[in-house]
Structures are given as C-alpha cells and as structure tokens.
Amino acid sequence: MGNSALKSHLETSQKTGVFQLTGKGLQEFPEELQRLTSNLRTVDLSGNKIELLPATIGNFLQLKSLTLNSNRLTSLPPDIGKLKKLETLSLNLNRIQQLPPDLGQLKSLRTLSLAGNQISEFPLGLATLRQLDLLDLSRNKIQNVPAEVSELQAIEINLNQNQISVLAAEVSRCPRLKVLRLEENCLELSSIPLSILTDSQVSLFSVEGNLFEVKRLRDLDGYDKYMERFTATKKKFT
Fold first, then answer.
1. What is the pLDDT of residues 79-98, one digit of tens each?
2. What is the chain's percent helix, strand, coil content, to nearest 5?
3. What gap in Å lies between CA 128 and CA 80, rounded to an integer?
4. Distance (Å, rounded) from C-alpha 41 to C-alpha 19?
5. pTM of the shown model
6. In the chain, fewer beta carbons within 10 Å around the N or the C end?
7. CA neighbor of 117 nearest in space, from 95, 90, 141
8. Between residues 122 and 1, the one the model is more confident about
9. CA dist 53 to 13, 58, 76, 109, 211, Å?
C-alpha cells in the first residue's frame, strides 16, 4: 500500500477516531498509528498478515474497539492490559494458543471474541472482567471446562466446535450466565451437570452435535425447570 494512501487514511482517522484498513496484506501493525494514540477509539485491521502486536499497543489509551480478525497472531503482548477503555476485542481466526494474564485488567471489556484460534485450555484469569457480556471461544481445541469458570461474569459463553468432554458442575454458578453454547463437542449425556438445568440462570443451553441425542436431555432431572426459564426468556423477546 502506498504512503500517500496511508497518509490520507491517517488524516481521516485523526478527525473521526476510526482507523480501518482491512485486507491489504499488511505484515505488521502500522507504526504510523503511534501519532494517533490520543484520539483513536476504533481500530480494525482484519484480513491482513500481521503476526505480532507491538508493545506500543498499550499507548492507545482511548481505544474502545480493537479488531484483528483473520491475521496471523500467535500471542498478545502483556501491554494490551493497559487499554482500560477497551470494550470490544475481536481476534477471530488467528493462531493464538494462550492469553496473557494481563487481559484480566481490561476493566471495560464487554466482548472478547477468539473464535477459530488454537487455544487448547480454557483461559483462566478472566474473572476480573466484571463488564464482560460475551466470551466467544468457539472453534478452538478446548477439552475441559474447569471449575474456575464459575467466577466468570459473562452473559454468554460460546464453546461450539471444540473438543470438550468434561464440563465442571461449577458452570452453573456463573452469576450472570444466560446462554451456554456447547454444540459439536465430545460430551456424553452423563457429562452434563444436572445443576445447569436445576440451579443456574442459563435459559439457552445449546448442545446439538455431541455424543447423545438432544431429546435425551428431556429425561434428565431438572429439565422442566430449565424449560421454564427458556420459555420465559422467549416470551420476553416476542
């Protein structure tokens, strides 16, 4: 991409607070953006070939939305934890294997989207994200949802298309969890904790494409209780 095109992008971004440069084959995070650290609120660099986020990402203190879908990132720098105003972090379709603990410092984060990466362990350390609404970990390589999940504040957790065979009963203690998606995993009917049906806030529990027929859920104790929540939620939105 020519310098003059980048220059005009930067000039526009200075006025709008938005920098969007997608599908241009960029191999690194544009250094020139450092000039705009004080006024950029939205950055979208999806569909490029960026392998590394520089530590200087921590300088963008006004940033509310950072999108780097379909790049080649394998990790995130600890400095990302400095983005205290960040509300949306979307890193779908990269090569990320694990998250830095510093991600737990993103106090304003509402959406964390990591679909289609190479994460093999459920990320811990996200319980401090008190504003989190959506955690999308679909299409990864997670096999186990551990007890620590109970501390998450998320309203929706998407774990579709992983390799999950173990689901901790503590998931039912998530204080705000309404939607739990576990389609196309490796769960047996006996791996489903009954407490999700009987004692949780979950009103949409999606388990198609596992190692049992979904209609067999109806035979489990507490299914009626779950259906009451499901129906009440449906009525609210119709």
1. 999 999 999 999 999 999 99
2. 30, 15, 55
3. 15
4. 8
5. 0.96
6. C
7. 95
8. 122
9. 20, 10, 6, 18, 39
